[in-house]
Design a protein that fits this description.
Elements: H1 7-34, H2 40-57, H3 69-100
Helix pairs in contact: 1-2
């Protein structure tokens, strides 16, 4: 989809945003570990500001949107809902399995 001559540029922009987002998440996670419980919200807000600035600084898509804007906006909304439901489902499923297979905890025998 889009102009074939800009596919490499669009791929680089997308992968750059994903990489910056991931590295930023790791950095702000490590920063949150250094804060007290009440100040962990600061690192979350810091990441939100960071990723917002990155989003605003990244160049726009070089291809012109020729589809009707109603269709484009509906696609964007459904995409966000789909990706959100996917990641929430993954988190819930893995959270349930994490508690079921608690191999990460050391067990000590109980003697009565």
């Amino acid at each position: 989809v889009g102009d074939g001559e800009t596919v490499v540029l669009r791929a680089i922009l997308y992968l750059s945003f994903i990489a910056i987002s991931g590295l930023g998440a790791v950095a702000f996670y490590k920063l949150s570990k250094k804060f007290q419980n009440k100040k962990k919200l600061v690192s979350l807000l810091g990441y939100a500001v960071f990723i917002s600035v990155v989003f605003l600084v990244m160049p726009e898509n070089p291809d012109e949107i020729t589809a009707p804007m109603n269709l484009v906006n509906e696609f964007r909304i459904m995409s966000v809902l789909g990706v959100t439901s996917f990641w929430v489902s993954i988190g819930l499923i893995l959270g349930l399995f994490w508690n079921r297979f608690e191999s990460h905890k050391e067990t000590t025998p109980h003697y009565n």
